[in-house]
Specification:
This protein has about 350 residues and is mostly helical. Helix content is about 40%, strand content about 0%. It has a two-stranded antiparallel ribbon with strand order 1-2. Helix 4 packs antiparallel against helix 9, helix 12 crosses helix 15 and helix 14 packs across helix 15. The longest helix is centred in the N-terminal third of the chain and has 18 residues. The protein is globular, with a radius of gyration of 22 Å. The two termini are about 40 Å apart.
């Protein structure tokens, strides 16, 4: 009941904020004015201040871990080796890491990624960082978890191009170094080099790709973790309604929404409809996580939006029906920067 009341109050606040004309034509450069330290925001300072209950309603900090790394050390080590190994592709040129680079926040910063023969798919390669926290995998949610997702690109004719599960297993069994690694990771299995185990191992490794940020410190009570601009951006992010979709531990990744909910967004990609064949799922995609978002462009399902500034403006227009000015964009982008990994 308390959360229902809080949600309704936030919806009213969101509506009032939007109707007040903040930033619609550029307006006051910062709209909400300076927030000061977290104490002012958390204890009623400012017309649009967020209290602790509001923050807890929308967000939660990352857990320290989502897999027992000590218990699963052998499985994780195998998964990392497989993730980095281009021999999982038909011509030994493409690995998981080719499109989801571990030294680049889990992406390749290309609109769409080239496969084993240079051809490109139709969708942007999302980051693998924090992906295990999502409700499902791929833009259309066709894989239920990272273990299932990891197996898809290997057999995709455009991506890694292996012809069959049997071909992958046969290839791995011919690589001497993998035999003891699979045996250690899957103790008790008579024949551990199996295709399903490839996904289990890669998924286990991906579950270690959790990236705590300064925003997590802020949510845990560190008043100095965010600066004034980032706090202003957080307030605007919530009051404009962005947090109605981008929320939870991953700041997104936990729901599906139609792109162009208020104002039509032109795309030929039918999104989740291709999976469910439900009419209302046309142009519906998984809401992306905003963690590390300042580092993972270009943006949207097709990688068609080059800059974060443009992505913020387009989301405000197409999802919320608002034209936002530079003050809103600047402050929200500052807040999104606080979601970048500290590591």
């Amino acid at each position: 009941m308390k959360k229902t009341f809080l949600f309704l109050a936030l919806m009213v606040s969101t509506y009032s904020y939007a109707q007040s004309g903040h930033e619609q034509h550029g307006g006051d450069h910062h709209g909400m004015g300076h927030m000061g330290e977290m104490g002012g925001m958390m204890h009623g300072g400012g017309h649009h201040a967020l209290d602790k209950a509001t923050l807890e309603h929308f967000f939660e900090p990352l857990p320290a871990s989502i897999i027992d790394e000590k218990k699963n050390a052998a499985l994780i080590a195998l998964g990392k080796k497989l993730y980095l190994d281009p021999r999982l592709s038909i011509n030994d040129t493409i690995s998981c890491n080719s499109c989801h680079q571990l030294d680049n926040f889990g992406v390749d910063n290309q609109p769409t990624s080239p496969g084993h023969d240079g051809k490109r798919g139709g969708r942007n390669s999302p980051t693998t960082f924090n992906a295990a926290l999502h409700i499902a995998q791929f833009w259309d949610g066709r894989a239920k978890n990272v273990e299932q997702q990891a197996l898809g690109p290997i057999l995709n004719p455009i991506e890694m191009g292996m012809p069959s599960q049997e071909a992958v297993v046969s290839k791995l069994k011919k690589i001497d170094e993998y035999r003891p690694l699979f045996a250690e990771a899957f103790k008790g299995e008579e024949d551990p080099v199996q295709y399903k185990n490839v996904g289990i191992a890669i998924g286990a490794f991906e579950r270690t790709l959790i990236t705590p940020s300064r925003f997590d410190d802020f949510l845990r009570g560190d008043e100095n973790a965010l600066n004034d601009a980032e706090k202003r951006g957080l307030q605007k992010f919530v009051h404009m309604g962005c947090a109605n979709c981008h929320n939870g531990v991953a700041i997104g990744g936990n729901s599906f929404k139609r792109i162009g909910q208020v104002e039509v967004y032109e795309t030929d990609d039918l999104g989740r409809f291709n999976v469910t064949e439900v009419e209302t799922d046309k142009k519906v995609f998984k809401v992306p996580s905003l963690r590390n978002i300042t580092k993972t462009g270009p943006y949207f399902h097709d990688g068609s939006v080059a800059t974060l500034d443009e992505a913020i403006r387009k989301m405000a227009k197409h999802q919320l029906g608002r034209d936002v000015g530079p003050g809103f964009t600047e402050d929200v982008k500052a807040f999104l920067g606080s979601l970048t990994s500290k590591q």
